[in-house]
């Protein structure tokens, strides 16, 4: 079933290997391009609105977000019940420090008056700089070139910088450049699309304004969540004047400009929040950060940015030979992932990264199951930080478990910012208990791929034990001695509150078994740590025996007649969805049918059984995978952007190479081509990472489990070759796939044992290993 690719409103992005470029301004695309041209560093996200903001028609969210900076409000249920999530947290926009505009002889710039020509804007993935250039002809005929460059520093996490240069082309006159900090009032988004988020933007209260000759800073605060943010600026020169009210400050530079001579202002902005710095100290820290940035200078920041990205691409680059547009899609995704992932151990990666308020800025299982592999194999330090975030919210997960009537253990929330459950729709929220198993899976995967045991000892083992404790409480051993798990929802959100969801049971089995293995490992290698943990969380041998038992006897629903796994106990009793009579405009189904209507049918939004076949691939035969794939593919709508990538990977594994390619086409440019029609609300972080997986897990067939590293590559016939680097067990491995051979090269590390299409191969640093595919 393919529906999403139809009638997409394409962005006007030129195909380039290392960036995105627009060569005209189109107000109808402005909101979408704000997302695509967004800059970020994992902490700050500056949407790609124009420097002059609303002076350009179509500007939708001229917003800046700080990952994890949120407002909260009570969730009001007309019909409430015990244990419902009671407080929502949602990301709020913070004041925008990037605004710049100008006037000529007192007449302000307005993009809607006069004429814009020679416009181009480019986001360069190698420099991390957004550059825009155009000529404005004012209504009275003055021509002026505007060149602006912008960055959000990867090396100074609180810093953004803008260089704004103006060149009069046919006049000499008075030009004043205005640099602003603006706090916009809250804009509410109405509508019933759950993907948009409850409210766009924020409603921060003014607290203070402070300025000196070369410094201006607002302090604003949230109403309920008790957070403060300082938004501050300085410039490379002393301003002529400065004015402010509670929402905006304008810093003005009055200049006399000669024809054909550029005048410029460089602006440095810094954001400091009370989440990281003591409230009383925030303004001082902001000033200090700005002083540092000013000393480095704009060119210095660009040089640092380039060096940082150079290092990133050395590790992460994926090269696709023979398709420039897919090449662009891949790098766009990798770049945005790098921009989106929190890396301070206290923040994570939101469903929309730092590019928008969609899904309220919440963190989901998307992190562990979709995004983590990308970082594991390219920036394992960031992967660890993402897991540390979960460790930092373990207490909240314990509290939630108590609320959910578990006397022991921890239950992670379906969606959250700082830890509490924020899902107000429990059938597709809290009921997705698989989140616990997903996190344990990620801990295990981190451990297997990096060989870094310190995370397990510091946090991981405790997280795995606490979370696995929930499984025995969700089910029982039946008369045949099989362990069943009741009333849960799997990843497929078109089916809810079922017994023995195959994905959940399979992942719970892995989780329970992993916990048992960890106990054994600790008792052998780190007995004092095990002792400490046993005491801390009151872990008993009886409990561990139950984990072992439940894992050994986990029920895995199987339909003998069809010869495939059932998504849950009752799945095959339901009628099939009437696909033949569902017109295209009724997709996605979630916007056109009540959940109950959908739940009552065999229809999937996204992979469920098929995802289990990938994550726990060693537990299923190829034949089983193929049969399951065939059945579930036919009933999956891919209404979620988390779907196509997994189908691409599994199609590759079962030998459907054309399908693998088709699904890859649905994911590799999902945001650049706005295939889901909602990229204006932010990028789809899971799908971006899923595209990376489609190449590395799909076409190249990488699987890591325990000590095993397996590849099973093929070359899509549309390509001449592809190549990528992956970090595995302290090695950096370059993999290149050509028509008939694969070349493995160790860029770091001495030796690495892999399996190539089932054949053991030892890769050594001394020479390339070339094998037939
Ligand atoms: C998907 C979930 C996902 C969420 C956030 C939903 O549409 O069904 O699996 O976690 O979006 O990306």
UniProtKB/TrEMBL annotation:
<feature type="binding site">
    <location>
        <begin position="365"/>
        <end position="366"/>
    </location>
    <ligand>
        <name>substrate</name>
    </ligand>
</feature>
<feature type="domain" description="Glycoside hydrolase family 65 N-terminal">
    <location>
        <begin position="22"/>
        <end position="275"/>
    </location>
</feature>
<dbReference type="GO" id="GO:0005975">
    <property type="term" value="P:carbohydrate metabolic process"/>
</dbReference>
<feature type="binding site">
    <location>
        <begin position="605"/>
        <end position="606"/>
    </location>
    <ligand>
        <name>substrate</name>
    </ligand>
</feature>
<dbReference type="InterPro" id="IPR008928">
    <property type="entry name" value="6-hairpin_glycosidase_sf"/>
</dbReference>
<feature type="domain" description="Glycoside hydrolase family 65 C-terminal">
    <location>
        <begin position="702"/>
        <end position="762"/>
    </location>
</feature>
<dbReference type="GO" id="GO:0030246">
    <property type="term" value="F:carbohydrate binding"/>
</dbReference>
<dbReference type="Pfam" id="PF03632">
    <property type="entry name" value="Glyco_hydro_65m"/>
</dbReference>
<dbReference type="InterPro" id="IPR012341">
    <property type="entry name" value="6hp_glycosidase-like_sf"/>
</dbReference>
<dbReference type="InterPro" id="IPR005195">
    <property type="entry name" value="Glyco_hydro_65_M"/>
</dbReference>
<dbReference type="GO" id="GO:0004553">
    <property type="term" value="F:hydrolase activity, hydrolyzing O-glycosyl compounds"/>
</dbReference>
<feature type="domain" description="Glycoside hydrolase family 65 central catalytic">
    <location>
        <begin position="331"/>
        <end position="693"/>
    </location>
</feature>
<comment type="similarity">
    <text>Belongs to the glycosyl hydrolase 65 family.</text>
</comment>
<dbReference type="GO" id="GO:0016757">
    <property type="term" value="F:glycosyltransferase activity"/>
</dbReference>
<dbReference type="InterPro" id="IPR005196">
    <property type="entry name" value="Glyco_hydro_65_N"/>
</dbReference>
<dbReference type="InterPro" id="IPR011013">
    <property type="entry name" value="Gal_mutarotase_sf_dom"/>
</dbReference>
<feature type="active site" description="Proton donor">
    <location>
        <position position="493"/>
    </location>
</feature>
<dbReference type="InterPro" id="IPR017045">
    <property type="entry name" value="Malt_Pase/Glycosyl_Hdrlase"/>
</dbReference>
<protein>
    <submittedName>
        <fullName>Alpha,alpha-trehalose phosphorylase</fullName>
    </submittedName>
</protein>
<keyword id="KW-0808">Transferase</keyword>
<dbReference type="Pfam" id="PF03633">
    <property type="entry name" value="Glyco_hydro_65C"/>
</dbReference>
<keyword id="KW-0328">Glycosyltransferase</keyword>
<dbReference type="InterPro" id="IPR005194">
    <property type="entry name" value="Glyco_hydro_65_C"/>
</dbReference>
<dbReference type="Pfam" id="PF03636">
    <property type="entry name" value="Glyco_hydro_65N"/>
</dbReference>
<dbReference type="InterPro" id="IPR037018">
    <property type="entry name" value="GH65_N"/>
</dbReference>
